[in-house]
């Protein structure tokens, strides 16, 4: 089956996304208070100018497998491009590819590569270069310490250039979602052969990153600053771009500033032009002061808590259900966020076309939470009012995410709410370098995360016991449901299986949804044409300065 795709055609691999990523962008228009789209105005786009962009975190190294966090991806996507991508309406479109074919059982794919594209070091993008990328992503290289891309199936066998423009990808077992995974994974960008042939340490140095994007790395200081400059010969933008040819901006200076309030202050004072993760409570004020706000609610999970089923006390479904019914989601949103943010209605953002509204199954009900805990035997109370059983306190702990800037505030409020029903939650600290290792331990009872899911297969990736295994000890029944998601050959079958998975994690209290979560940005009113794609990556190719 062949898939040659144009600007608004959906790539139908049998189980593809058919919805929209919701992007809210507004500015204050005089005294009217009327919202206007980002980049609106009477001026025409014009080239030139430099901007400063503040990010909460920059990396020590930038080998491709190190760019999976939301912070780093917002930078990486300005100079690295992908074979396929999701646009802001949820359509799966080609970029460095022009189409693909697959056999009947989804074990062989042939990807056609666009012609006329070069990497920033002058190397030509062709099938051989793409095959080199896919083999390193699919298989890794143990001799250099380069790990495989975990989102790609372990049944990846080999990618082979069968012509100058065609790459054959072979799998040892069916995997219908290969193309959506290539489009929806941050670590499947296409890099120049000269970059890929280097050692892991050399690949981590951004001066060695040669890619096809509209900007190139001019200089960088680890954990501090990255300076990008326009690539003047760029001529292959994505189909949803607003213009052709080189980017408008001459230069983008990206700097690390961890404190959200300081990022907001720098934007307010005019010292910078763009910030990632402004404080949600400051969003309304930023708009009132003339800034442009961009909230990209992409298909994927809400912010919530994964419950580790083997951790202490969580083997009892009554305890798990009590925890979810003890959370007042509306209070959290009203206290910590702007009116753009929404309480969770299910495990997935409402922008996810195949997401379910299951809010009636986990609604705030402290009376029910108390009853469930009583039934579970937690009837004693200590001097601080926490529940006890057999001399043990009903106690949980969590490490607030270092990647989600609102994490600690969310969890602190949840701790207050849980205390009202006698549950103690302690927040512990850990640094960036150790967070992933520490938070993934089986003994850590709670794990909070937000992840993009442009395709249902990502539920399998995050939740199946053979994959990310976020619940640590899921049931065999749940694993079978997720396997149905991963192997579904049609839209209807994938969506139906995904709905069963969503119902399962709610009905069995594996996951506690709290609120929807966007990628959010704030920009100076003079910065026009900013936008985000269906993966929540900000796009600065069409961005320009209105002087």
From TrEMBL:
<dbReference type="GO" id="GO:0042597">
    <property type="term" value="C:periplasmic space"/>
</dbReference>
<keyword id="KW-0732">Signal</keyword>
<feature type="signal peptide">
    <location>
        <begin position="1"/>
        <end position="24"/>
    </location>
</feature>
<feature type="domain" description="Solute-binding protein family 5">
    <location>
        <begin position="93"/>
        <end position="469"/>
    </location>
</feature>
<dbReference type="GO" id="GO:1904680">
    <property type="term" value="F:peptide transmembrane transporter activity"/>
</dbReference>
<dbReference type="InterPro" id="IPR030678">
    <property type="entry name" value="Peptide/Ni-bd"/>
</dbReference>
<dbReference type="GO" id="GO:0015833">
    <property type="term" value="P:peptide transport"/>
</dbReference>
<dbReference type="InterPro" id="IPR039424">
    <property type="entry name" value="SBP_5"/>
</dbReference>
<dbReference type="InterPro" id="IPR000914">
    <property type="entry name" value="SBP_5_dom"/>
</dbReference>
<dbReference type="InterPro" id="IPR006311">
    <property type="entry name" value="TAT_signal"/>
</dbReference>
<dbReference type="Pfam" id="PF00496">
    <property type="entry name" value="SBP_bac_5"/>
</dbReference>
<protein>
    <submittedName>
        <fullName>Putative ABC transporter substrate binding protein</fullName>
    </submittedName>
</protein>
<dbReference type="GO" id="GO:0043190">
    <property type="term" value="C:ATP-binding cassette (ABC) transporter complex"/>
</dbReference>
